[in-house]
Amino acid sequence: MSVDDAALVRLCLLGNPDAIGILVARYHSDVFGMCVRLLRHQQDAEDVTQEVFLRVFRSLERWDSTRPLRPWIVGIAINRCRTWLGLRSRRPETVDFLDETLVAPNVNANETRELSAEIQSAVQDLREDYRTVFVLFHEQGQGYEDIARAIDRPVGTVKTWLHRARMEILERLKRRGLVEEETRRPTSGE
User: Fold this and answer.
1) Among residues 149, 8, 10, which one has the least CA distance to residue 79?
2) Distance (Å, rounded) from C-alpha 22 to C-alpha 39?
3) Looking at residue 152, which CATH number applies to its domain?
4) How far is CA 145 from the centre of its chain?
5) Do residue 42 and residue 13 come from a single domain?
6) Could you say which of 88, 92, 98, 133 is the most buried, measured as most Cβ atoms within 10 Å of its Cβ?
7) Are 173 and 114 within 8 A, CB to CB?
8) Is residue 157 in a domain?
């Protein structure tokens, strides 16, 4: 069944199980991927992803069909991740896994892998707002306007947070010696 989002939502509201499955399949990887990146824990991301789709279906009748569905769903996912992070910060967390992107690369690993691992680690260390915008833009491929709608902030704020996230990552890579400082051009007396 290939239908646009508005028609798919109408079918879901009528209780069509095929439409419900299609809607979940259409947006599941985006929601789950973002939850993993924001929560940094696969099991938490699985739980939150389920919560997101429960909320989506409970709130579907309130979706404005003149607006894109994806940013609306992403907005719900971001809010659920924020809530989850708030709850998690209030309870002790046991370390039950090591995310392979945070493991230091082998000394013999090639520079590309080392750089990639360091970037992933730097993204994880960004403050939550910056990380959310960075993930939505660079990993989910969303535009400024869609991100602004999803996080309920002005486009200017999205651009500022994205720029700051990039600068923090770049500074970290420079400190680690993985990217070179801009070279100074010699003056005529040198």
Assistant:
1) 149
2) 25
3) 1.10.10.10
4) 15
5) yes
6) 133
7) no
8) yes
- The residue among 1, 145, 161 whose CA lies nearest residue 74 is 145
pLDDT recorded at residue 126: 92
| pTM > 0.85: yes or no | no
Residue 141, Ramachandran bin (φ over 0: left; ψ between -120 and 50: alpha; else beta): left
**Alpha-helical segments (H) within the chain:** 5-13, 17-39, 42-59, 69-89, 111-125, 128-134, 144-151, 155-175
Lowest mean pLDDT of 19-23, 62-66, 133-137, 178-182, name the range. 178-182
**Separation of alpha carbons 52 and 26, rounded Å:** 14
Segment 151-186, tens digit of pLDDT: 999 999 999 998 899 888 888 888 887 766 554 444
The whole domain housing 126 covers 99-179
Between vectors from CA 135 to CA 57 and to CA 126, what angle results, nearest 5°?
A: 120
Which residues fall within 8 angstroms of residue 61, CB to CB, at 6 or more apart?
A: 13
Please compute, for residue 79, the number of CA atoms within 13 A of its CA located in the half-sphere on the CB side: 16
For helices 17-39 and 69-89, the axis angle rounded to 10 degrees is: 50
